[in-house]
Amino acid sequence: MEERVKNDKKLFYEELNKLVMDSRIRRLSKYPQHNGSNTLTHCVQVAKRSFALAEEFGWDIDEKELARGAMLHDYYQYDIKKEGFSAYHHGTSHPLTAMKKAQEDFDLTEKERNIIRGHMWPLTLAHPPKSKEAILVCLADKDIATREFAMPEIRKAKKLAGKVLNRKSSQ
């Protein structure tokens, strides 16, 4: 029987909480993200989902580098709409911008730089994720972004389903 990897959840969340309390990272709350979310909330959700995926896959990870890379993956610090970027331009350029800005404010490891730079792969074809942590953030970012984009439609569907159910129960 294969032995399950046990990552240090406490260490991961200690690092995550430390990052969330950092004033430089807290600035991300000023920048809109997908459908009413903000970049800070998005990054926290990506970090949590990345750790959950590591557990689900049974992957042994570096908890600190995963938390740091996930929290800094969208450290580009601008409002996409105000900048006037197309979705494609933003999608292909923001990983490099985020990595450069993160390097200015934090002492990044090579793995953390790759987590940030590679999180939009395969859109950024020349910069694939090169570690388990980078793969996890890449996957988690897509999962969380999809949920954020779908949320308004899910709310509409729930509201419509409630109306249909109410009509049926009153008949």
Oligomerization category of the chains in this entry: single chain
Low-confidence stretches: none
Helix/sheet category? mainly alpha
- Give the proportion of residues in helices: 55-70%
Shape: globular
**Topology as H/E string?**
HHHHHHHH
Q: How many distinct helices?
A: 8
What is the β-strand count?
0
Gyration radius over CA: 18 Å
The major pleated sheet works out as: none
> Mean pLDDT, nearest integer?
89
Gap between N and C termini: 56 Å
Strand content: under 5%
Topology:
Blueprint: H1 9-21, H2 23-26, H3 39-57, H4 63-72, H5 80-83, H6 87-105, H7 110-118, H8 132-169
Account of the protein in words:
The protein has 171 residues and is an all-alpha fold. The protein contains 8 helices and no strands. The termini are far apart.
Structure summary:
This protein has about 170 residues and is mainly α. It has helices at about 10-20, 25, 40-55, 65-70, 80-85, 85-105, 110-120, 130-170.
Q: Which key terms come to mind for this protein?
A:
171 residues, mainly alpha, 0% strand
